[in-house]
Design goal:
disordered C terminus; 459 residues; mainly alpha; disordered N terminus
């Protein structure tokens, strides 16, 4: 969400100067950041100078659009061959199922009985054939399992890295063509801030092979939407709306760490592999639906139900799992870069507050491809203690000042109190401005007008 509370220019801690420390027990290299001066970021300012909350109210909050990271639209596409073949596969399954249904309807009753009798006699052969098909799918699944970098989670990976490197280059060309007139020059201060953050994150995590293997190229797009994404080939796109939405350099570092984690963990290839595998399985059910349903209209309804079940039982939950994993790894990458990881959960609390102020309906999490802001903040809060230990192992400077989470909480209390005072004042003003009707003279019922047209005074 494009959000600006007390939009002002602040001087963040700069993050380009790094030096290598001695490796800790795990064998990883850790780096520290030193303060840099002069670069500025327009920020969502939550006071961090002291415990006293900044004075702000609902009138100071401006909300323009939804915040989103890593949308499915911007993930690398599946291999081009399967993009072309996928509609043809579904069409073939529909035609096959419909042909089976029409063939069965055209059979005379006696032949139908003969066919049923033959199926009963050969039921074990049929069962063996179906079981063999199931075994093939299981074997395909387990023979294509790989270990996720960093987290060690087992996941299905059908497509190779080179496939996605080539396709991400195609997608990169597409985005560059779309944003060619909106790219900020390298001399722009905002570009320099993003370059510093990404460079510091990559330098601090160069012990991770997947990080050091990529050349991270920065592109800052002059767009008001709050968005950032990283292609599998290391192309980083950041919208200026994101720079206006974050509170400070720490929140920006976490968000970019999250996006880098998607590329490092190869989530685009993993998600495409799952969709590819489920699509093959769904072809069997699609054929059965069109073969069993007596009418095309019922088959269409059945196909829609099957697609929605796949979407809400597999696709969206899996997408939320990948987002949570990217949050976890992104927090670790940020911790090794000596970022104040406590600011990560505050960012999502800000997003939740923004949606509440805008009056957006709070949809159930199961309807979304991303975890809810509330659950995301809680998940990060559970991960922050471990991230702080990583900072310590990397010999990062001690965190000074109050906890950003406490500052945000105090600001929210101040906002609520200010809102209550404002509501009380408004109620008092409305009560005083109500017109007073003089009924001191007694009127007969039949002499009283049917209605009173009372015009309130202008406020």
């Amino acid at each position: 969400m494009n959000l600006s509370v007390f939009a002002r220019v602040v001087s963040p801690r700069r993050a380009t100067s790094v030096w290598k420390n001695a490796p800790h027990g795990s064998g990883r290299f850790c780096f520290q950041s030193s303060p840099l001066q002069g670069e500025k970021v327009t920020s969502f300012q939550i006071s961090s100078a002291g415990l006293r909350p900044s004075h702000f109210s609902a009138q100071n909050i401006q909300i323009a659009s939804f915040f989103h990271t890593s949308p499915s639209l911007q993930a690398a596409p599946v291999p081009l061959f399967w993009i072309i073949v996928k509609p043809a596969q579904k069409l073939f399954a529909i035609i096959l199922g419909r042909s089976i249904r029409n063939w069965w309807k055209a059979l005379p009753p006696n032949k139908r009985e003969l066919f049923k009798e033959s199926a009963r006699r050969n039921k074990w052969k049929i069962l063996l054939g179906v079981s063999s098909l199931g075994v093939l799918f299981v074997m395909f699944y387990f023979t294509h399992l790989e270990e996720t970098p960093i987290t060690g989670r087992a996941r299905l990976l059908v497509f190779g890295k080179e496939h996605f490197r080539q396709l991400s280059q195609m997608e990169y060309d597409m985005w560059m063509e779309e944003f060619k007139n909106k790219m900020l020059p390298e001399t722009d201060a905002r570009y320099q801030v993003v370059k510093s953050v990404v460079g510091h994150l990559s330098e601090s995590n160069k012990d991770v092979p997947q990080v050091s293997a990529l050349d991270w190229v920065i592109h800052v797009v002059d767009e008001p939407g709050v968005n950032a994404f990283v292609l599998p080939n290391g192309q980083v796109f950041v919208f200026t709306g994101l720079l206006n939405a974050v509170s400070d350099i720490h929140q920006l570092s976490f968000i970019l760490g999250h996006e880098i984690a998607h590329a490092v963990l190869q989530h685009a290839a993993e998600k495409a592999s799952l969709v590819h595998f489920l699509d093959f399985l769904s072809l069997i059910f699609l054929t059965m639906i069109w073969a069993i349903c007596p009418r095309d209209s019922l088959a269409v309804v059945g196909q829609w139900i099957q697609s929605k079940l796949q979407e809400f039982m597999f696709d969206r939950p899996y997408s939320r799992t990948l987002e949570a994993e990217a949050d976890k790894v992104g927090l670790q990458l940020a911790a090794k870069a000596c970022v104040d990881v406590r600011a990560s959960s505050v960012f999502w609390q800000q997003m939740e507050l923004a949606e509440a102020i805008q009056g957006q309906p709070k949809l159930p999490e199961w309807l979304s491809t991303h975890p809810s802001h509330e659950n995301r903040a809680e998940h990060l809060d559970r991960l922050i203690p471990e991230a702080l230990k990583i900072r310590e192992r990397c010999n990062c400077p001690s965190l000074s000042g109050p906890d950003p989470r406490l500052i945000f909480k105090l600001n929210m209390q101040h906002l609520l109190e200010s809102s209550k005072v404002q509501e009380t004042q408004n109620s008092t003003e409305q009560a005083l401005s109500k017109p007073k009707l003089d009924f001191r003279q007694t009127q007969k019922v039949e002499d009283m007008p049917v209605t009173f047209a009372v015009k309130p005074t202008n406020q």
